[in-house]
Amino acid sequence: MVGVRLENVSKSVVGGTSIKGLNLNISDGEFFVIAGPPGSGKSLVLRLVAGLEKPDEGEIYLGDERITDLPPHRRGVSMVFQSLALYPNKTVFDNIAFPLRIRKVSESTVRKRVNEVAQFLRIEHVLHKYPRFLSGGEQQRVAVARAMILNPRVFLFDQPLANLDAVIRIAMRDEIRRIAKETGITSIYVTHENVEALSIGDRIAYMEKGKIVEIGTPEDFLKNPQDFRVARYFGDVNYVQLLAENTDGRSSVTFLNRRIEVSPNHSKIILAFHINEVKLGVNELGDRYLTGEGEVVMVEERVRNRVCSIRLGDGVELRAITDKRFEIGERVKFAISPDKIYLYDGDTMSRLS
């Protein structure tokens, strides 16, 4: 199989999100996820790789082969869409066989190939059925089978699970990753679901407004995000926006009566920390911790614990995960380790050391 490379790719879209100067390098056999809010340009990247759109500038490669000007049918790329686009008047067998038949492949080869793919995806028992008689998960497998039938060099998945209910969606996301890994086919998967991206991606590119903000592994995004937008999108984080104060040539922000020094080049500061890092109802933990007190204003019950929202005296609200029980209106003390607080520039959103 091959990797995928986009070099300085730009595409203007009238009435939609454009991309400019996009660079992306996806390794051979990698399951690469592009995540971000709706309208960020994620699907446009897939359409450019598939050849459904042509870039205004830049080059696209599969391995060492330049495919920028190749038509879609010569790229060796298969795409699964959100709508699945199954033909309702064709059986499952005929839906899967369709890409082979339009290429005038012999019927004996068609039967052999369809049966091989159906066996791999465990859908042999529905080959005679029509799409309307299939479950959502079965329809999804048929769409993937049709994409596999031509032995593509690259899989493209454009939010393929968006129309499935939660239980089936979880099962199918694992199934899609299994298929990609067992076949070794390089895959690019687009989603706006943060949990989905973290669950299946080898690496993730987070996009906003047509630009890649950050690329990293799921662990990078959860534990060491370099951009505040990534921290906010992929993690349950509290954040506080502060203005730096200049005193005697030194800049700092004050949070919970603790002064935190910052570079004088940054006037707007964002403090961010995961809701797991707020310890509620604690006794003395030592001077190292930032401590405070607030009023419980909301309690959200979860399966194994609960999330409490705490309002501080200055109106700031913090959220915390706890296994303790607190009542709305109750005053509660809390502590945060300063080691767990990340600082970001309020203008660029970039991480500060």
Strand content: 25-35%
Q: Please write the CATH class name of the largest domain.
A: Alpha Beta
Any guess at the CATH architecture of the largest domain? 3-Layer(aba) Sandwich
CATH topology of the largest domain: Rossmann fold
CATH superfamily of the largest domain: P-loop containing nucleotide triphosphate hydrolases
Total discrete domains: 2
What class do helices, strands and sheet pairing give? alpha+beta
Radius of gyration: 25 Å
Q: Bin the helical content.
A: 10-25%
As residue ranges, the low-confidence spans are none
> What spatial form do the alpha-carbon principal axes imply?
elongated
Number of strands: 22
Number of helices: 8
Main sheet specs: 6 strands, mixed
Distance linking N and C termini: 40 Å
Mean pLDDT: 93
Order of helices and strands: EEEHEEEHHHEHEHEEHHEEEEEEEEEEEE
Provide the spatial order of strands within the biggest beta sheet.
6-7-8-3-9-10
